[in-house]
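Hi all, long-time lurker, first post. I run a small reading group and we've been trying to get comfortable going from sequence to structure in the token notation. Rather than ask abstract questions, I figured I'd post a concrete chain and ask someone more experienced to write out its structure so we can walk through it together at our next meeting. Sequence below, copied exactly:
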Amino acid sequence: MSISLDKIDIIMERANVSYQEAQEALERNHGDLVDTLIDLEKKDKLKKEITRSEKKHYGNTVVERMIEQFKIMHSYEFLIKKQKQMILKLPLTIAALLIVLAFPFSLIFLGLLLLTKFELSIKTKDKEYVINDLVKRNEDE
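-- Answer (accepted) --
Happy to help. Here is the structure in token form:
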């Protein structure tokens, strides 16, 4: 009965077992790889391959979750105010897209707005987060 590290690695690669479990399974099956795999299969320890339909379903769920997050983000608003007067009101998705597409310029623009006492905030359904306060809090720490 020859149990090598290579055999243990093969069993671990093909089954959901630890090093010790792979060694014990090989010992039970006198070092025979095929018998060990059959033994582990009976115990439902082999890694299951994802079928094409399962991959498609998983892909769909990821896309569905992304769409759901996009809808939530789109329901939030990005606000720019000056002395409590509304200057600009955009869905957060549009604001984020503009910031990403014009990154260096948008960073400068937002920085200038903060320095010139404009109030930047993100409004959710039940709360408004003032970005100026978050920046000020981080500066204090």
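A couple of things your group might point at:
The beta strands are 77-82, 85-91, 119-123, 128-130.
The chain has seven helices and four strands.
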